[in-house]
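Q: Joint fold for the lines below.
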Amino acid sequence: MEHHQTVTTVSKSMPDRAMLGVRQVLSRGETLYTEDDFAGDWFIVLSGVLRTCRYLPDGHRQVTGFFFPEDVFGLEAPTRRTSAEAVTEVVLMRYDRAFLDGDEEVSLPSLGHARHLLLGALDAAEGRIELLGLRSACERVAGFLLRMDSLMDADGYIFLPMGRADIADYLALTVETVSRTLSLLARRKLLSFRGPQRVLLVSRSQLEELAGGRPWSSPATIVQQNIAYTAQRDGPGHLRTNHYISH
Amino acid sequence: MEHHQTVTTVSKSMPDRAMLGVRQVLSRGETLYTEDDFAGDWFIVLSGVLRTCRYLPDGHRQVTGFFFPEDVFGLEAPTRRTSAEAVTEVVLMRYDRAFLDGDEEVSLPSLGHARHLLLGALDAAEGRIELLGLRSACERVAGFLLRMDSLMDADGYIFLPMGRADIADYLALTVETVSRTLSLLARRKLLSFRGPQRVLLVSRSQLEELAGGRPWSSPATIVQQNIAYTAQRDGPGHLRTNHYISH
DNA sequence: CGGTCTGTTGATACGTGTCAAATCACGTGG
DNA sequence: CCACGTGATTTGACACGTATCAACAGACCG
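A: Joint structure:
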């Protein structure tokens, strides 16, 4: 996965506006910048996973995004909307803001023009909006897992680099609800866990249904198919009570 | 408000890549494009209000954005992620996608370069993410109202062009919950209504508190100030029961 | 082997969804 | 200008889903 060798050791030797960045490494949990900092640079993840967060006055934390290799972040205007923290060890490229504000067209190594890059960031943000717009914990958790598909290993298992708390704060749920929902989906055999971090999506199609599925077209022909917690029997002992009860 | 005279009647006479758009008018409720359509153009709102929606397989509708004058939308990749529908009568400018994809730098009338425009759209999307990341109905409704500040009249009242259903589908709530929450905030005298569409933000500071407030800094010094429905007495008869009970 | 941290499970309170009905806003026609 | 009809909004009663508080289990580390 460590292909940053091709992109890294650029910069500084060229004095001109040749659009080159600086490579930077963060260790687990390290904070790159904080809310309200001056937003001088923007970044591209080369390896590892990073999260952006807000800390609300009531003490709650909001995770506004996870960023994986090739993802761009930190593009916001004069000050930071969020802080940026390393979920795992992270290697990233730092670019000067002037390269976006300036008049010259920017060409980035292996990522094309600045416009292309911005469109990608916008697309990712809209994906997050769709995810957060889902109503139930089940929908959001299923949607979340489907978006982590790119983290799949050779054996088909997804490795979740972030903890339950990160997921919860990302989906506007509690740790307990995330954990319960994952357990439930596993009991329903839509998922299979190998430790808390490694998960196999057994039935993508059913997960997509839960998550509001592949888009749909017009407001007609409504196929009522509301799969609630209580609407199906479990594996063996068809325990379809509320409160996640199982055993 | 109708300043589109300066921007409108351009286009077509100039054959070259002079970056000019076509003016277009939508009437209330009209659909501009639909999910999965080919995304050939993008748009800027000149007047009126527009919404983008997804229709989920379970019949629910998700409103992923409201767009006001000067807002940009429809920038997504080869096909539409959402449909676009006019909330009020809308006047907009339509631009060809090639102006974004092309190599030449684009300069738009009164909006600067394409990059600037994309950064604006990204900023708006991130604002929506922060809003949807709030947990309770109270927080989201308060946050929503604060973001509608720009719709303020001369008398200080905000005119809400969209119905309760639009707000509900935007905040991932039900119509009833939105209505109840607005009523509650009005009883608490943070709001004052003059008909369902016209609302005055009586206490912005308290609304900001509810909405997760102006950002905050670090994960320390937590000022526990969780204003729940039941945590305060109402105007006269301190009825702090649950279920929104009041009278 | 006893710390702490993360994740899971349980019991219960409470917030929000659902279904139903009343009320209000507003356009139409008398 | 007012009566009426229709749709939007508000309110009520109740069920259900999620938050909360608490306890337990497992992983990692000293």
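Q: Anything notable?
A: Chain A touches chain B through 55 residues (CB under 8 Å). Chain A has two domains: 15-130, 135-231.
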